[in-house]
Design brief:
single chain, alpha+beta, three-stranded antiparallel sheet, 3 helices, 3 strands, 17% strand
């Protein structure tokens, strides 16, 4: 179930996974490795800052292009 009280400038885990082209487990791994930080929500329904996800997506695109 997606959070209906999502603050502006944040994405759910599902939205984050979609933006990065990865699975939910991939999002969890990014958090575990310290490459992505939760910015709200709850432990079961975390939110991620849109800016952080965008920066990470750009870094991944640059890495893949190289």
């Amino acid at each position: 179930m997606e959070s209906t009280n999502l603050r502006p400038g944040h994405l759910t885990a599902h939205q984050t996974a979609q933006q990065l082209g990865i699975t939910l487990d991939g999002v969890r791994q990014l958090v575990h490795r310290g490459k992505l930080k939760r910015s709200g929500g709850s432990p079961r329904q975390p939110w991620y800052a849109t800016e952080d996800v965008t920066i990470l997506a750009l870094k991944r695109a640059q890495r893949d292009a190289a």
